[in-house]
């Protein structure tokens, strides 16, 4: 295996590539893809991914799956679980060797709050029923998105979170965390590290299981008190990451937004949210 000599004095200087709790922040130019692929290939790891396509969001699935084939853990064992209420409309996408898609039916729902609430529950159950002790890593991804560049072994870690592209230069007091202390997603104005995306998170299946179970319980306990966090499960995820600290942080290269102009520190967009016509895709 050949890769450039590592250096501790030369490298990117325009971004920070380690958090104050010493988790790597993954940016283009901070890792060797060849080296990482070699390390994880030797371990023969497997990676699961979940994606929800409920109602009209099924329209995003084809591009999601096709681009995942081109960029997501190429050369590794990958199993994508699609949760949908329209199993007949799941597109036929040719998968490479060692890669497969499983479709799981879920009830239709008109309320995003319900879909959102059930997402963590379904992730929790999927891990308990099918993944624990069988699969190493899992990523949970929004369907209204596409891959444009490599998303591979550099993203692996115990608990992995992606920094939201919308707020990474802002003061923490401006982050759209849930600010009511009565909610179990509460983060105080002087607290919080980064604002993380609800649209992509992952890690070891055991760690993501604990995350899903905790966020689901907090979400449901809030609902019993008649409170819904500002950004639903994204708020609960942010609270969880504040308390637990991700062991690897992915830069906004890993979930950009197509409507946002590219910033100079973004050398590559790996995955991004597509522009969507809300009126046309969301229920009611
Ligand atoms: C989303 C908003 C309002 C009402 C319904 C939905 C919705 C979300 C839906 O009808 N169907 C669906 O499958 N979802 C799933 O939740 C998709 O995987 C989607 O990517 C994810 C998060 O919802 P998004 O993508 O609309 O949220 P943003 O914050 O990325 O715009
Ligand atoms: Mn989305």
TrEMBL record:
GO terms for biological process: carbohydrate metabolic process. The active site is at 234 (nucleophile). Mn(2+) binds at residues 142, 144. GO terms for molecular function: hexosyltransferase activity; metal ion binding. Binds 1 Mn(2+) ion per subunit. InterPro entries: Glyco_trans_6, Nucleotide-diphossugar_trans. It is a single-pass type II membrane protein. UDP-N-acetyl-alpha-D-galactosamine binds at residues 52-54, 57, 142-144. SUPFAM superfamilies: Nucleotide-diphospho-sugar transferases. It is found in: Membrane. An alpha-L-fucosyl-(1->2)-beta-D-galactosyl derivative binds at residues 164, 234. Its cofactor is Mn(2+). One of its GO terms (cellular component) is vesicle. Keywords: Glycosyltransferase, Manganese, Membrane, Metal-binding, Signal-anchor, Transferase, Transmembrane, Transmembrane helix. Belongs to the glycosyltransferase 6 family. This is Globoside alpha-1,3-N-acetylgalactosaminyltransferase 1 (FORS blood group). It comes from Kryptolebias marmoratus. The lineage of its organism: Eukaryota, Metazoa, Chordata, Craniata, Vertebrata.
């Amino acid at each position: 295996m050949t890769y450039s000599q590592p250096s501790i004095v030369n490298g990117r200087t325009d971004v920070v590539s380690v958090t104050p709790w010493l988790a790597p922040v993954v940016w283009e130019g901070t890792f060797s893809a060849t080296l990482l692929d070699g390390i994880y290939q030797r371990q023969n790891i497997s990676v699961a991914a979940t994606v929800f396509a409920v109602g009209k969001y099924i329209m995003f699935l084809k591009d999601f799956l096709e681009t995942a084939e081109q960029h997501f853990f190429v050369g590794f064992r990958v199993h994508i679980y699609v949760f949908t209420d329209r199993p007949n409309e799941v597109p036929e996408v040719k998968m490479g060797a060692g890669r497969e898609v499983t479709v799981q039916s879920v009830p239709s729902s008109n309320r995003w709050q319900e879909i959102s609430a059930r997402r963590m529950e379904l992730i929790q159950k999927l891990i308990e029923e099918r993944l624990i002790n069988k699969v190493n890593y899992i990523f949970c991804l929004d369907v209204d998105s596409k891959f444009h560049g490599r998303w591979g072994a550099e993203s692996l870690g115990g608990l992995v979170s992606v920094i939201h592209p919308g707020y990474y230069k802002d003061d923490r007091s401006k982050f759209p965390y849930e600010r009511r202390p009565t909610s179990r997603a509460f983060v105080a104005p002087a607290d919080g590290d980064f604002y993380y995306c609800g649209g992509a998170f992952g890690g070891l299946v055991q760690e993501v299981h604990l995350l899903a179970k905790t966020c689901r319980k907090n979400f449901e306990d809030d609902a019993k008190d008649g409170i819904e966090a500002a950004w639903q499960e994204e708020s609960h995820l942010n609270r969880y990451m504040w308390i637990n600290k991700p062991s690897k942080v992915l830069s906004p290269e890993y979930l950009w937004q197509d409507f946002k102009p590219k910033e100079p520190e973004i050398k590559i967009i790996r995955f991004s949210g597509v522009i969507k016509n809300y009126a046309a895709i969301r229920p009611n």
